[in-house]
Amino acid sequence: MFTKLSLKIGFLFFACILLIESLLFYTLYATLVNDRVDEVMESLLARGETHSAVLAMSFKKETMEHVGMMEAASSFSVIVTDEKGQVLIHSDPIEPEMKTVMDNTDFASMPADGQVIEAHWSEKKYIASDSPVMKEGDHFGHVFMFSDTEGIARMVDNLQKQFFWAGVITVALTVVTILGLSRLITLPLIKMKKATEQLSLGHHQVDLMIDRNDELGELAAAITKLSKDLDQLKKTRHEFLGSISHELRTPLTYIKGYSDILNRPGLSEKEKEKYATIIQEETTRLTSFIQELFELAKMDQHEFHILKKEESLDELIESATNLVSASFAREGKSLLVSGKKNIQVMIDMERMQQVLLNLLDNARKYSQAGFSTSINVLERGNEVVIQVKDEGIGIPKNEIPFIFDRLYRVEKSRSRESGGFGIGLSIAKEIVEAHGGLLEIQSETGVGTEAIVRLKRKEDWNV
Ligand SMILES: Nc1ncnc2c1ncn2[C@@H]1O[C@H](COP(=O)(O)OP(=O)(O)OP(=O)(O)O)[C@@H](O)[C@H]1O
Ligand SMILES: [Mg+2]
After folding, report:
1. CATH number of the domain enclosing 273
2. Ligand 1 proximity of 437 Cβ (cutoff 6 Å)
3. Most buried residue, 35, 214, 241, 449, by most Cβ within 10 Å?
């Protein structure tokens, strides 16, 4: 029934407020009625007391008649009796109800200052009080005062009517207020719901423009940010797919072209060998590209596991340098290792080796023959730092922020010559970060590049 949030909130509020209002109204009503009834009773008793005081001074026929005359003109009735209950005078005709009240009165035990002897205003026709006439401890008679309960009933009836209308107006105002309030709360939610529907339909540019700084405002800002992120993701994916197809197309064009040539008649063995080598190189390039893409896909699927073990940093560096030293030597570039020895680190050996190989590969690829690359290890505060520094061509300042992006290469044609895909650094960064470390690149064109791997020190592992 209550599928709408505004209705749910509204109904809940309404129920709570109605309960509170009913309680307050009832308390107020009961207090008012009681006070008014008490007032009537007190005035009845006070009147009886006055008469009994007068009669105590002069318990004579004339005084009694005077009292009777006074009350005949008022809305009350008075009956004066002797000490045994024998009626002496009465202001109005004695009705059976009055008689019953008097018959049930215990004349002897009546307190000297009188008391209310019939208070059931809602059931009885009269409320009544009895004030004994006393003089010097002697007991002469009784002044019975009666008041019609109709007046009280009318007053209570009036009060009930007033309360009823006040209640109706309060409920109406409550409903209007709650409707307004719940709309105020749910309207932005409805807007957000529509926005997210738009998002799932692929319209990634929503701007909720909800100008409030409460939780709803935060939610709106989060959705707007999500839409921008999605939009960015869509663009990146587009560019990524574009780059991949471009990357695949180029070697495939070579392979196709050279295999066509290979099929031509009259080629010399030497030519055949040359073309076959090109095809082989391009196939190798394609294979490694697909391998790297596969790595990226695994990272995105979170199927990429880091198994950290206590390892020697010297061993890591040695194994990496052993693998690349031959290619450095072949190209006339030197590789130097320096810095602190005997450091133990908690790493996934294979993965960290992949990082170092990539950094060293970059250093080699992007520097000319005759220049050297150095690996330096140092401990700084809580960190172990591995610096891979080259004296190569460097990276322009404005390109540095993008080099960790997938398939980003500074100079497309140049890095194709050197065989890069622009994936290595993005994989390396993810691996280092998965170790809880950081990978930074500092570079200056024409001076060289420094890649810095910052890992947590061994002592911190279990912290
Ligand atoms: N040491 C360096 N000196 C100069 N430029 C560099 C260096 N390292 C990286 N770059 C630039 O950053 C780009 C991205 O590097 P990255 O390692 O991600 O890709 P890549 O080396 O081109 O290809 P691969 O995917 O094979 O590693 C490179 O294409 C290159 O332009
Ligand atoms: Mg690289």
Report:
1. 1.10.287.130
2. no
3. 449
